[in-house]
Each structure stands twice: as C-alpha cells, then as structure tokens.
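Cross-check.
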Amino acid sequence: MTITLTSEQEKFVAEQLSNGHYRSVDEVIGQSLDMLRAQEEFIRTHTEELRKEIAVGLEQARRGELIDGKAALVTLREKLRQQAHAPE
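Predicted model, tokenized:
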C-alpha cells in the first residue's frame, strides 16, 4: 500500500522520529491508526450515553437550572485539589 502525506503530516512524522518517540515511519502510522480505531470505537460505544447526558442538560437548561461557567470551573478545580491531597 502506498500513502501520500501532506507536508505538514510529513513534518509531524519526522518530529516524532527525531524526538525518539518512534523508531520508524511504519510505527508512527501504525500508532496513528490504532488511536483512530480507539477513537472510533469510543464514539461508537458512547454516542447513546452522550446523547442522553446532553438531553438531561438541555432539560435542566429549559427549567432554568444553569450554573455559571466560571463558578463551575472553580468548583471542579477545588474538587481536583481535594482529591489530589486526599489520603488513599
């Protein structure tokens, strides 16, 4: 099989090789395809769940149950900070 890469893609592959992340072009392309496969599988298996969650959020918005974005981020960051410092 022969593939044609854009100059930007070729540059990215070359960077990955020069950084030592991969040993060959085949390895870079193989890993890329594996990641694409995993992404497609995730989308396939989670689409319905995501649609349900979006529907819940839209219904909450219709009822006026909204949270300020900045406040939500502050809350999330605090939860993450607490989890990071919690004993296991």
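Residues 7-85 form one domain. The mean pLDDT is 94. Passed to J.P. for a second look.
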